[in-house]
Amino acid sequence: MSDKKKKKLSPTQQEYQKFAQDREPKRPIFLNCVRAFFVGGLICVIAQGIQMFFMTYYHFSQENAGNPTGAVIIIITVLLTGFGVFDHIAQWAGAGTIIPVTGFANTIASSSIEHRSEGFVLGVGGNMFKLAGPVIVYGVFSAFVVSLVVITLRALGVM
Amino acid sequence: MEKFIWAFLIGGGICVIGQLLLDGLKLTPAHTTCALVVVGAILGGLGLYDPLIKFAGAGASIPISSFGNSLVKGALNEYAGVGPIGVLTGIFEVTSAGISAAIIFGFMGALIFRPKG
Fold first, then answer.
1. In principle, which of A52, A84, A131, B59 could form an S-S bond with B7, CB 3.0–4.6 Å?
2. Does A104 touch chain B (CB under 8 A)?
3. B117 part of a folded domain
4. Residue A151: which domain range?
5. Entry pTM
6. Residue A141 and residue A107 share a domain
7. Do residues A103 and A46 share a domain?
8. What would the pLDDT profile of A93-129 be if each residue is shown by its tens digit?
9. Could B71 and A140 be called an inter-chain contact, meaning their C-beta atoms sit closer than 8 Å?
């Protein structure tokens, strides 16, 4: 809890917050990092294998091979999400599944499946980017700013 | 074979950075992925991310930070080709495959599967 919020609470509430904080289970940060490292690394190795497959048999260049590879990983994630397996892996692996493109695909698939009961237009269509939207918004805006800065610096001859 | 080892180490390393942001700074998953995308865009602008992809292959191109890099790359490439409007038309050029695939297969998933629990 931030300091700003803390000031608004009464002394008893502050005491309770401290009491609750002491009893909150400590996060096993080291163990979580080890799990994230192995699962994240494994996903990247699988992706590398798929990429090699596309490069060897379909003659993609290393740059272009990223596209079909990402698509295959996304399909696998959507299937695992639909069958309810992905949640269990994600619970165990933490950032290991959130940071690779699997996390992006999972948020889209899970929010569209979840809101299906609200109808296909407002439910699935409207909620598909509920969780994945921020990534696109901040990605596009930061890319816009970075591009303008790079273009300006290049025009000035700095870069 | 060497590529696989570097993909494992770099990909795992980026996930550890994400886990430290999650646990250490107590950020939500959405904040973590946004932070990594912005970092990826900045590294892309500095020209540091493409060498990493060349070196680690899928280890650098599968984590979400490469999304930021691809957005910058698309915008700058299109700017070089068609001028200022290229920043707007090119921004999704490279990442189109990923976003389209996620929308199309996500929608198919919603057609096929029912929510659990």
1. B59
2. yes
3. no
4. 130-159
5. 0.85
6. no
7. yes
8. 888 898 998 988 999 998 888 888 888 888 888 888 8
9. yes
